Amino acid sequence: MPSDDVKNLSYEQAKLQLDEVVERLEDKDLPLDDMVTLWEQGERLAQVCEEKLAGARARLEALRPSGDSAE
Questions:
Q1: Cβ proximity of 1 and 41 under 8 Å
Q2: Mean pLDDT lowest for which of 3-12, 18-27, 56-65?
Q3: Given CA atoms 19, 17, 59, 55 in this order, what sign does their dihedral have?
Q4: What's the whole-model pTM score?
Q5: Backbone phi, then psi, for 10, in 5-degree steps?
Q6: Is 57 exposed, middle or buried (0-12, 13-18, 19+ CB in 10 A)?
Q7: Which of 2, 35, 62, 67 has the fewest CB atoms within 10 Å, i.e. is most exposed?
């Protein structure tokens, strides 16, 4: 999957694909080259998920009143 295509996924789509990659990686009979390719795809998907979550967190923090330090 090209990197640009992955970046255009929603969080939910990326998470679903990441779950599928993890499931496929658990196959002990998978050839090494396929495992490496899946691992790389999983890394890209995980990065998309992290970026989407960071963006959502930043948006929520921006909505929080500035006097609220509930951390």
A1: yes
A2: 3-12
A3: positive
A4: 0.79
A5: -75, 170
A6: exposed
A7: 67
CA of residue 47 relative to chain centroid, distance = 5
Per-residue three-class SS string for 11-48: HHHHHHHHHHHHHHHCCCCCCHHHHHHHHHHHHHHHHH
Give residue 63's identity as a one-letter amino acid code: L
pLDDT in tens, 14-44: 999 999 999 999 999 999 999 999 999 999 9
Enumerate domains of the chain plus CATH numbers.
3-63 (1.10.287)
The amino acid that residue 40 corresponds to is: E
CA distance linking residue 17 with residue 23, whole number of Å: 10
* 28/34 Cα distance (integer angstroms): 11
Tell me the pLDDT band of 66, cut-offs 50, 70 and 90: confident
**pLDDT computed for residue 69 by the predictor:** 56
